[in-house]
Amino acid sequence: GAVVSQHPSRVICKSGTSVKIECRSLDFQATTMFWYRQFPKKSLMLMATSNEGSKATYEQGVEKDKFLINHASLTLSTLTVTSAHPEDSSFYICSAMTGIQETQYFGPGTRLLVL
Amino acid sequence: GEDVEQSLFLSVREGDSSVINCTYTDSSSTYLYWYKQEPGAGLQLLTYIFSNMDMKQDQRLTVLLNKKDKHLSLRIADTQTGDSAIYFCAESRDSSYKLIFGSGTRLLVRP
């Protein structure tokens, strides 16, 4: 139980284009999902907290117009990197929280490379 | 992860015990977690401990929490080559459930 998927697992795009990453909770409903960014050999940095049916809460220093988050249903949250630049290249990981155990379950991550 | 610190690297021989240490600064932490990350993959929750507990054991894993010193450790008994990975400790504070991660400890298990 508590499986979280991400799609795509890997994406390469040209500078200036937008990329959408999906995060799905497969066997549970997640009222809250989190988006993290991980640089090579570094820790995870929380970008934003996504609550179903409401606007995401962004961490300090994260541009909300750059990283658009939509949490349209209890099983799906999307992160759209708009007008991507090479410095946006990173490993993006989502997590979903079950309301009962308040434990975060992580997706497998999406590696984004912007050329 | 500047509020949560871990040593960067640990190397052990297969069959030995591994002890990964973590220190944190916020005394209001409610839950403390250990996650495992294999290369190119997401994070797998290994175990967690509530802040009012001293110890938690789960098969080969033992978590010790010293709240006074704000020190958390993960002991892996009979370490196997499949345990080679990066291990992250994380804390959550108050009711926000946001996780603050340490920098990760890379565990290498030698045959």
Would you tell me the overall average pLDDT of chain A? Answer: 91
For the sheet with most strands of chain A, the description reads: 7 strands, mixed
Strand fraction of chain A equals over 45%
For this entry, what is the oligomeric state of its chains? heterodimer
Largest sheet of chain B: 6 strands, mixed
Helix content of chain A: under 10%
Rg from alpha-carbon coordinates of chain B: 13 Å
Supply the number of helical segments of chain B: 0
Spans of chain B of 5+ residues with little confidence (pLDDT < 50)?
Answer: none
Helix content of chain B: under 10%
User: What pattern of helices and strands is seen along the backbone of chain B?
Assistant: EEEEEEEEEEE
**Total E-strand runs of chain A:** 11
Count the beta strands of chain B. 11
Spans where pLDDT lies below 50 across 5 or more residues of chain A: none
What structural class results from the helix and strand content of chain A?
mainly beta
